[in-house]
Amino acid sequence: MTARETNPNFMNGVPELLILKLLQKEEMYGYEIVQALRNRTDAVIAVGEGVVYPVLHSLERDKALKSRRKIVNGRSRIYYMITPAGLRRFADLSETWTNLAVAIQQMLTGAQYDKAFS
Amino acid sequence: MTARETNPNFMNGVPELLILKLLQKEEMYGYEIVQALRNRTDAVIAVGEGVVYPVLHSLERDKALKSRRKIVNGRSRIYYMITPAGLRRFADLSETWTNLAVAIQQMLTGAQYDKAFS
DNA sequence: AATTATACCTAGTGATTCAAGGTATATGTC
DNA sequence: GACATATACCTTGAATCACTAGGTATAATT
Question: Which of A47, B9, B43, B67 is a Cys-bridge partner for A51, taking CB atoms 3.0 to 4.6 Å apart?
Fold first, then answer.
């Protein structure tokens, strides 16, 4: 058996990344996030509430977000805002994503430089 | 309940995409593919054999690939080559991936055009 | 009065990746 | 000859995570 060194579930974590990105600009509530993602990506990214709410809860559990309840128009909303830990997490995820996207793009466009020389 | 219309597991299928890409240029065998992915992406994408072999089998089951056994240096290898169906599948996956990557990149770089007017 | 939109939630399923094994032969090293 | 490493195939089981499909409740619209 050779050494393994793979990446832990390298394709996941994008909803988390995008949510953290949105919350960097302003506090938002779950329902709002669901629609923001849909609208701002032309429905290319259309994650439902079943994805967003659990991610929000898990991020809050990890202290990457905090929340406060707020009544607007007689409706109870839970606004989430990002913490310093959340910012760090965003930076990590963001870098990981970028590396991945670049690597895939290079593969697809066929960038040839086998680097057998190092 | 509102209409849902999400995308089925929108983050997956990248190993499949990359394998199809590699096989577009030349026939390859599983072990070779594992290392090619690692080498050509500087280990950013390091999927193990436990990912590659099942994907190859499933693609062959779907007639996207066909295979032939070949003995080289007394070693038995199974070479895979892409079929017309595989080319179509690649085109689909490739487009899906590109759309996704563009959407995410726009979100991350903060392209503002809320398109509340349509 | 009934439907739609807002706003929260979770349980269960399914797809897929990852870790960790297993088999067998060839090659290189001590 | 003995041993480790590299090549080359494979699968099982756990974990992750997104998706489906529900559920509750209030406000606004028809």
Answer: A47
- Asked whether residue A6's C-beta has any atom of DNA/RNA strand D within 7 A, the reply is no
Nearest to B80 by CA among B96, B61, B103: B61
Is B107 an interface residue toward A (CB < 8 Å)?
A: yes
- Domain of A26 in residue numbering reads as 14-100
The set of residues, in sequence order, having a beta carbon less than 8 Å from that of A57 and lying 6+ positions away, is none
pLDDT on residue A8: 67
How far apart CA B1 and CA A115 sit, in angstroms, is 54
CATH of the domain at A82: 1.10.10.10
Q: Are A19 and B108 in contact, with CB atoms under 8 Å apart?
A: no
Distance CA B15, CA B17 (A): 5
Residue A85 lies in a domain: yes
Q: Which nucleotide is nearest to B51 (CA to C1')?
A: C17
What value does the mean pLDDT take over residues B24-46?
94
B112 or A107: which leads in pLDDT: A107
List of chain A residues with pLDDT < 50:
1-5, 114-118
Number of structural domains chain A divides into: 1
Residue of B nearest to A95 (CA): B108
Confidence of residue B113 (pLDDT cuts 50, 70, 90): low
- Within a domain: A34: yes
Domain-embedded: residue B108:
no
CA distances from B110 to A52, B12, B101, B102 (A): 20, 24, 14, 12
Residue A8 lies in a domain: no
